[in-house]
Write a structure and sequence with these properties.
Elements: E1 7-10, E2 13-15, H1 28-32, E3 35-43, E4 46-47, H2 50-63, H3 72-86, E5 90-98, E6 116-123, H4 129-134, E7 136-140, H5 162-173, E8 178-182, E9 188-191, E10 195-201, E11 209-213, H6 224-235, E12 240-242, H7 247-251, E13 255-260, E14 264-271, E15 274-275, H8 283-303
Parallel strand pairs: 7-8, 7-14, 11-12
Antiparallel strand pairs: 1-2, 1-6, 3-4, 3-5, 5-6, 8-9, 10-11, 10-13, 13-14, 14-15
Length: 304
C-alpha cells in the first residue's frame, strides 16, 4: 500500500501524520543539537548503502560519546520497515539518533537517556535535469570557515548543523547553488552539503588529467557517495588523488563537480562569475556520473 503522507518512525512507533509525531521538548537533540544523523535514498524499497550509512552513524555517535540503547540491526530493520510502508519509487530517508530526554537541565549527559531514534521517509522527486545538463554555480563562503577538527570534527555528522547553514546562507546571498568552505589554513575542504572535486591536468604530463578531491585531513565529512566515486573511478582506471588544493587551483581547474547521497554527481559550471573550464559539464565528470548511475542500478538489482 502506498502512503502519500510522510512516514515518521519514533523508537519503533510509526506515524503517518506529522502532527502526531512528537518528541519531548527536553530532548537533548533539540536543546543542544546533541545528536547524529544520516541521509540516503531508497529505490523501490532498497535503501542505498544502508550498511555504510549505519556504520558512519555509529562512528558519529561514538565521537559524541553517545551509546545507543538499541542495536544497529534493530535500527536497520526499522528503517527498512518504514521505507516499505512508504512504498514509493524513490524515497528520501533521514535517520536521527539523539542522546535522549534531559531529566535535568545542563550539559552533563548522565542526566539523560535513553537514546531516541527518529526515521523520516518522504517521497523523493528527481532533481531538475538542467543541473546535470548545464551544471550549477558555486561560491566561496564569506565570513565563514569550516569547523576546525579540534573544535567540532567535520567527520562527525552531527545534528549541530549551524556551520553548514551559515555557509549555505553565504552562498545563497551570492545566488549560488552551493557554497565552498575553506578550513582555517585556507585550504578547500568541502561544500555546505556536499563533497567537492576538480579535474586538472597532471603536473608530469599536461596531456593527461587527474581527478582530485580534498583528503579527510582537510576537515571534511567522509562522504558515502565520495567513497563510491573513488571506487568506481578506480575500477574504470580513472586516476584520482586525495590531496589538498586552494581556491586558485579550483578556479583554474578544467572541470569541477560535487557529490552527495541525494544528488549523486552534479557538474559545476562556474564559481562566482568565473567559469570552470568551458563553463559546461566536462567529459570526465559526465563519465563518472554515468559510472555512478550504473553502480546504483546494479546495487538495487542485487539487493531487491
Amino acid at each position: 500500500m502506498y502512503v502519500t503522507q510522510p512516514i515518521v518512525n519514533i523508537n519503533g512507533t510509526i506515524h503517518t501524520s506529522s502532527s502526531e509525531a512528537k518528541i519531548s521538548v527536553f530532548d537533548r537533540g533539540l536543546l543542544f543539537g546533541d545528536s547524529a544523523y544520516e541521509v540516503t535514498l531508497a529505490y523501490d524499497g532498497v535503501v542505498l548503502l544502508l550498511e555504510q550509512h549505519l556504520d558512519r552513524l555509529w562512528r558519529s555517535l561514538a565521537g559524541l560519546y553517545i551509546e545507543p540503547s538499541f542495536s544497529k540491526q534493530l535500527l536497520a530493520d526499522e528503517i527498512i520497515r518504514s521505507v516499505h510502508l512508504k512504498s514509493s519509487a524513490q524515497s528520501y530517508v533521514r535517520i536521527m539518533v539523539t542522546r535522549g530526554e534531559a531529566n535535568k537541565m545542563g550539559l552533563d549527559p548522565d542526566f539523560s537517556g535513553p537514546t531516541n531514534f527518529i526515521i523520516i521517509v518522504l517521497e523523493h522527486h528527481p532533481h531538475p535535469q538542467e543541473w546535470y545538463d548545464d551544471g550549477v554555480k558555486l561560491a566561496f563562503a564569506k565570513g565563514v570557515i569550516r569547523n576546525d577538527q579540534r573544535a567540532l570534527d567535520p567527520k562527525i555528522k552531527t545534528g549541530n548543523y549551524l556551520n553548514n547553514f551559515m555557509a549555505y546562507m553565504s552562498g545563497k546571498e551570492q545566488k549560488a547553488y552551493e557554497t565552498i568552505l575553506l578550513n582555517s589554513e585556507g585550504v578547500v575542504s568541502e561544500c555546505s552539503t556536499s563533497n567537492i572535486w576538480m579535474v586538472r591536468t597532471k603536473n608530469s604530463d599536461p596531456q593527461q588529467v587527474v581527478v582530485q578531491t580534498p583528503p579527510v585531513s582537510a576537515g571534511i565529512l567522509e562522504g558515502i557517495t565520495r567513497d563510491c566515486v573513488l571506487q568506481v573511478a578506480q575500477q574504470a582506471n580513472i586516476e584520482v588523488v586525495q590531496e589538498i588544493f586552494y581556491p586558485v587551483d579550483l578556479l583554474n581547474a578544467q572541470e569541477c563537480f560535487i557529490t552527495s547521497a541525494t544528488r549523486m554527481i552534479i557538474p559545476v559550471s562556474s564559481i562566482g562569475d568565473h567559469p570552470i573550464g568551458s563553463g559546461r559539464p566536462g567529459v570526465v565528470t559526465l563519465k563518472l556520473l554515468a559510472l555512478y548511475k550504473n553502480f546504483v542500478e546494479n546495487y538495487i538489482k542485487v539487493n531487491q
